[in-house]
Amino acid sequence: MTTRRLTDEEFSEFVHAVWPGLYRTAYLMLGEHQLAEDLVQTALAKTYASWRQVKEPAAAPAYARVVLANTAASWFRRRSWRNEHPTEVLPDAGSEHDPSTRPAVVDALRTLAPRQRAVVVLRYYDDLSVREVAHALGISEGTVKSQTSDALARLRTQLGEAVVPAHLISPGGSRD
Amino acid sequence: MTERLSTLLRDEAADLLPPPPPTADILGTGRRLRRRRRTAQVVGGSALAAVLVVGAVFATTSLHDDAAGGGEGKGIDPATAAYLDHGAFATGTTVHLGDGGNVDVGEKVKVVYYTSAGLLVRSGDTPWTDDPGPSHYSLVAPDGTTTRLDLDLGDRVPATDPDQPVVAYADAAGPGSDSWDIVVRDVTTDREVSRTTVQGSFTWGGWEAPPVELDGDLVYVGLDAETPAVDWRTGTVTSTSLGSSTVPEVAGGHVVTSTKSTVEVVDLATGRSVYSTPNDGYPYISLSPDGRYAKVVQQDESEGDSFDVVDLRSGDTTTIDGASWDFGWSPAGNLVSVDLKAGELSTCTAGGGDCSTSPVSGPVKGELKLAGISYES
User: What's this model's pTM, rounded to 2 decimal places?
Assistant: First the structure.
């Protein structure tokens, strides 16, 4: 695969390779399967359109993830977002693990503001750094820290001390 | 530490069963986006020009999410957000901005067009488009910064794209000839950036030059015998199947067409029909700026109580209460209407039909002109 001349077959292969991972991130961010599919589809179309910005093939998946996060952020900016997407029902994904704990994490995520939720997913699911999250969402590193702190405080009330220890949350709302 | 939280998230994700990727749709949308993807041209000059260019960058990135660029400049100021969400309208000589601000342009507003740099306001001595002129043009940025362009087009039909900082129009290439220059002008620099000549007679409309439509790189020209497409960046002229003696409704790579029995929305890249409705009810279709949604009005059925908006991607239909003709589009694809008696601006989401209102401020005397509507007669 080259970055300058990409055939449809090559991009199709790329889509099949990254789709599952991006879909999982999108679902955790948005909490709804159809929206997650829509987000990933949009992000990959944008990735295709701006493929020349991909410096090397190995960087393409990370690039697509940034596009996905930034697309989600643009959705969140819309004033109507919260009206369109209020708190939902429990996820319909199956579970083979501890049923008393597993649904709670998705429920807890739903109590967060959209951008807080995105910050948590990108940091603690995708393992992005503060700087990377800031870049992906188009916000400052300070905002990432404060949003993380606020989000963890809220998650702690939902998930408990064992999952989110209190010492992780700084009094000033800033945490790296 | 947060390992437990990470583990919970990964376990949750691991149990998800992602659906198969809609690869063909992704490729199709990607091709359309690639053709439309543009960056605002940064040209030095006055501080005003700099302000306008910044506006262009904001609008471009937020409307179509040129997401993977640098991390800088990804924020969005409230005025631009309001512009994208709520659009704009004019009454008399006053332009009302989405954030409640207003600007007096000193002449009666004829038409308000969306660009990625802000509003292109066409004004003159009367509020009508079919007068001999003058027909002046001003750029009103989302923050209200206004600059008059060196442009007087008279009774002509120009075109803009909410994703680009340009205006396109046709000029006679010579007196009495069947040659037309398709001109594209950067509204942030007030400079011509492209001029391409097309051949063909134009007698079917009463304007001074053929009407044009702009979608991304392509300017569609409504000639008597055909509707050629001009790629204004390359100067390439190609034939289309869009018929003749018409002004095509094109947005986001979609076009509204009709057959004997249907009115349809067609994907220009593939030729595939993405929406079709029988023409028994004399449907009228208006596309959102990004081509994602279609406002569908069954003209012989609607008494003005409601109308449908179709998501062309999912096929979902949303019914919006209100008189269909009162609603225009915002740059971000919301439906916008103005009730001058109530002093309210209504904004409804195309995807869910949720509506909110905000007060209208400033003078409201004169003809109402919703942005994004041509008001051509």
Answer: 0.61
